[in-house]
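Researcher: I'd like a structural prediction for the single chain below. Treat it as a standalone chain; there are no partners to consider.
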Amino acid sequence: MTFLVSDEVPVGFIMAWAGEPAYLPDNWKVCDGLTMTKNDYRELYNVVAEIWTPDQGVGRDLFKIPDLRGLFLRGVSGVRDDEFMDPNKNNRLTTMGRTQSNAVGSFQRQSTKLPNRNFPGGTAAAGRHTHNLPAHGGGPGVAHGANSDKNVTFGDWVHETKNMPLRANDHTHTVTISGGGDVETRPSNAYVHWIIKVR
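Model: Treating it as a single chain, here is the predicted structure.
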């Protein structure tokens, strides 16, 4: 771990730590928004200043290190204007909750972009189907009819009709998605501790 305490690593440098915070060298801290004193960490304050301090009025001699728990890191978009620029670079939030132009220390809430291509889907066009109305019914009747071979004798059912089909031609349906999905949009990831060199 000699590279961690080397002067070649500048104060304010952030990197990933694969172990537990208890094993960090003294000159490194987890990026959890810890409050520091300007007098004890003057060099660090010169780097991060009050960029990451949401409660600047608490004490003039205090400041906070970045709180990066649960966050991915993203490079500042700056003046980049190609396909890789941040399209919302001017609507990012500071730790004070104010909107700020793209700069170190600003945040974005999660969002989901509309797909660049349409998803295949929809209801089947083969919507032809049949509904049957229930039979009229009837009950035991008496003999009647003009022709003897069609006479209905006592005990047979009379006035009974067959099911009547109602048919629908091919059609589609509009589908409204009102459920499903997950709590956030994210790539596959692994937990590490973001740490910062404080001295």
